[in-house]
Design brief:
The chain is about 5% helix and about 40% strand. With about 475 residues, it is mainly β. It folds into five domains: about 90 residues, Immunoglobulins (Immunoglobulin-like, Sandwich); about 90 residues, Sandwich (Immunoglobulin-like), CATH 2.60.40; about 90 residues, Sandwich (Immunoglobulin-like); about 70 residues, Immunoglobulin-like (Sandwich), CATH 2.60.40; about 90 residues, Sandwich (Immunoglobulin-like), CATH 2.60.40. The strands form ten sheets. Strands 3, 4, 6, 7 and 8 form a five-stranded antiparallel β-sheet that branches. Strands 11, 12, 14, 15 and 16 form a five-stranded antiparallel β-sheet that branches. A five-stranded mixed β-sheet has the order 17-23-22-19-20, with no helix packed on it.
Length: about 475
């Protein structure tokens, strides 16, 4: 029982101590004292420090528990607070101080009150706080600040570029705040003259002096890394099969300007977006720029490039000419269209060259590709298509009437596309009668200068890739 009674007593003591600590730690207001009257409107509000707190909140109002003046403003660990623009005159001020406690809810302490003095005189003058008087190297976008004038409820500010010449703004009422930012940036390397006049219902401060500061002198220059990079080509296509073109700008900059250069030399700004949509051929210029600042002033670091928009279209392959040379096959691609083209035997995406001629090639079936250099598309064509008996006529009539006088590939066949290298003609016994070039008129039915009789004859056609097709035809006179 003795041991249990000691433990219980200890717990009660700890509990009572804890309760005591947390119920007795609200501070006492020392300046002003609770209930004071005729308190100056710029009075520093101070209270006794409280051990163990991690911060204070203060509210000032004109009603019990109100925060019309400041609401739950933190003062950190400072046991005082200075109202920025003072307090209203001849007014009961209600003070609420709250405590931040470790591992516990915020503790709101009982209200304190005091009454401010009745002000019967105009306020005194104030001075610049930022920039301070005669300061140099000030930013052109500076926010002008001044010190609180006790008793003031409003301020008149005048700003000019020379003494007593307020050509920027004159007698502008700021309200009960201590700063003013001009609508436009000030000029660089310029003296700026400022006069601030505090006032209240009793009148304006008298004989307030003019102060000045000087903005910075521009020394900012664009370095190499400040300029954007332009990767737009010298020529851009406007594909005839599209209503408009889009030029994608892959580089990031602060700003973009796209300019159309007219035939008479005049220029029109047509876009400030990152990419350009266009529907007219002609000459253009793009301007990319970054912006750097000093003293609040900004300059552009621009790069420009002129380029041409040209009409272009998908190429058409008119012919593919295949011939044999000592070192292999030679392929020449004949394409036409309103564009600039490049050529490949490899794929739709790779192996392109400016020349339409390929040499030293192994025999074989392949596809040729022609691509518009400006992105209007790729056309392809099989160089050698399957040889069929239907590509050769079943008969011919070499009687001199000008009709079917020669036996050759059918007229509608394109011998260059078939890539037939040779055609051999035999009689029924296998004797070679003629060897034809597919590009000639063909065989006239003669052998060694004499006409051969009406009968069937045999042929063998051989392609560059050594594919063969055999068949027969009839000679009629």
């Amino acid at each position: 029982m003795g041991k249990e009674r000691i433990i219980l007593t200890l717990c009660l003591c700890i509990g009572l101590y804890s309760s005591f600590c947390y119920t007795q730690q609200c501070p006492i207001m020392t300046s002003p004292i609770d209930g004071d009257i005729n308190v100056p409107v710029d009075n520093l509000i101070r209270w006794t420090p409280v051990d163990g707190v991690i911060g204070y909140l203060i509210s000032l109002g004109t009603t019990p528990g109100g925060g019309e003046i400041i609401n739950r403003r933190s003062s950190g660990l400072n046991n005082f607070y200075q109202p920025t623009v003072g307090l209203p005159e001849d007014t009961i001020i209600y003070v609420t101080i709250s405590l931040f406690l470790p591992d516990a809810p915020i503790k709101v302490c009982p209200l304190k009150i005091f009454t401010t003095v009745n002000i019967t005189d105009p306020p005194v003058c104030t001075t610049l706080a930022s920039p301070y008087n005669e300061e140099t190297g000030v930013r052109v976008d500076t926010n002008i600040k001044w010190n609180y004038a006790p008793g003031a409820i409003n301020y008149l500010i005048s700003i000019g570029s020379s003494p007593d010449n307020y050509d920027i703004i004159e007698n502008f009422e700021t309200g009960n705040i201590l700063s003013y930012k001009p609508e436009n940036n000030l000029e660089l390397n310029q003296s700026v003259y400022v006069r601030v006049i505090p006032f209240n219902e009793n009148g304006e401060a008298m004989l307030c002096t003019e102060e000045y500061f000087t903005t910075g002198e521009p020394t900012v220059q664009c370095n190499q890394n400040d300029f954007p990079i332009i990767t737009i080509p010298d020529k851009v296509s406007l594909c005839t099969n599209l209503e408009f073109g889009i030029l994608n700008n892959n580089q990031i900059a602060r700003g973009y300007r796209w300019i159309k250069i007219n035939t008479d030399g005049t220029e029109n700004l047509i876009s400030t977006t990152r990419d350009l949509e266009f529907n007219e051929a002609g000459y253009y210029r793009v301007e990319l720029y970054n912006i750097i600042s000093e003293f609040g002033a900004s300059i552009e670091c621009p790069v420009t490039k002129n380029f041409e928009v040209v009409n272009s279209e998908l190429p058409e392959i008119e012919n593919v000419i295949v011939s044999r040379e000592p070192n292999g096959l030679r392929i020449e691609i004949v394409a036409y269209g309103n564009g600039e083209y490049e050529y490949s035997l490899e794929s739709r995406d790779n192996g392109f060259q400016d020349s339409a001629i390929f040499t030293n090639l192994e025999p074989g079936e392949r596809t040729v590709y022609v691509r518009d250099k400006f992105g209007c598309g790729v056309t392809q064509r099989l160089v050698e298509k399957e040889i069929s008996i239907k590509d050769f006529p079943p008969f011919f009539t070499p009687n001199g009437d000008g009709i079917n006088d020669f036996w050759q590939l059918k007229n509608e066949s394109d011998s260059s596309e078939l890539n037939i290298e040779f055609i051999f003609i035999f009689d029924r016994y296998g004797n070679l009668l003629a060897q034809l070039d597919p590009k000639t008129k063909g065989w006239n039915g003669n052998f060694n200068g004499r006409e051969l009789p009406e009968t069937d004859y045999w042929f063998k056609a051989v392609s560059f890739s050594k594919k063969e097709i055999k068949g027969h035809f009839n000679l009629k006179r």
